[in-house]
Amino acid sequence: MKIMVCGKGGAGKSSLSVLAARVLSKTHKVYLIDSDESNTLLPKILDVEPPKAIVEYLGGKGTIFEKGEVNLAEALAKAGKGIRLDELPREYVSSSREGIRLLTIGKVREFGEGCACPFNFLLRTLLKNLELEEGEVVLVDTDAGIEHLGRGVEEGIEAVIAVADPTAESLELAKILKEYMAETGKTFWLVVNKTTPEIEDIINRKAG
Fold first, then answer.
1. In sequence order, what are the residues at sequence separation of 6 or more whose Cβ sits closer than 8 angstroms to the Cβ of residue 88?
2. Better-scored residue on pLDDT, 208 or 135
3. Distance CA 9, CA 21 (A)
4. Which of 72, 73, 53, 184 is nearest to 129 (CA)?
């Protein structure tokens, strides 16, 4: 199963992604994909060395749009049909002591290097063409907001976990994600973070 963890910045996406990965790793082979182009916390939380970014495997950020979606998928797969994450070279995957396999799409690190659009394009192509074996789960820790929705990244997944904190903006983003998932017949879960029993009923009504 391929699951995206989405929500407003600071809502707790990365923390929930790691917690979910640790729970699932007890019964599944788990891949955790870091698609946040700015946050660098996941390797530290998992206590692993940061893997090389997948964008580097394909020749760098500047080559992504040049390849086009079909050629990009072929470059990732290298041979055969579909993409298998266990066929990536070792330097592009870091494994935690629990057996969680961490991958990174790419990071914005230089002044003036441009937007993160190629990373979303790469992630969309990867998820659409990804082949999983029985017992494998992919969790994607996304960047803040819902730009990935506009880029069509959700096309290649089966479920979304929306992480929301008790703010109007956060709940509005969750509603947008819920509506999209309902339209496409995909699974949607909402996790409300940083709340208290006193406001739980209010949040539940707003999240409706």
1. 54, 57, 103
2. 135
3. 20
4. 73
Within 8 A by CB and 6+ apart from 14, the residues are 36, 39, 41, 42, 45, 141
CA separation (Å) from 44 to 51, 96, 112, 153?
Answer: 12, 10, 27, 26
Q: How wide is the angle at C-alpha 149 spanned by C-alphas 143 and 153, nearest 5°? A: 80
Residue 81 has pLDDT above 50, yes or no: yes
Tell me the per-residue pLDDT of 42-78, one tens digit each, with 9 for 90 and over: 999 999 999 999 888 877 766 665 666 656 666 666 5
Q: Which CATH class is domain 2-207?
A: alpha beta
| pLDDT score recorded for residue 145 | 81
> What is the pLDDT confidence band of residue 109, given thresholds at 50, 70 and 90?
low
Distance of CA 145 to CAs 37, 71, 73, 159, 173, Å? Answer: 12, 29, 26, 17, 7
Cα distance between residue 180 and residue 130, in whole Å: 21
Residues 6+ apart with CB under 8 A from 23: none
Strands 101-104 and 94-95, sheet pairing: antiparallel
What average pLDDT does range 88-92 have in this prediction? 91
Query: Which residues, in sequence order, are CB contacts of 65 under 8 Å at separation 6+?
Result: 117, 118, 121
Residue reference for tokens 């496409």? 184
Looking at this protein, which amino acid is placed at residue 142? T
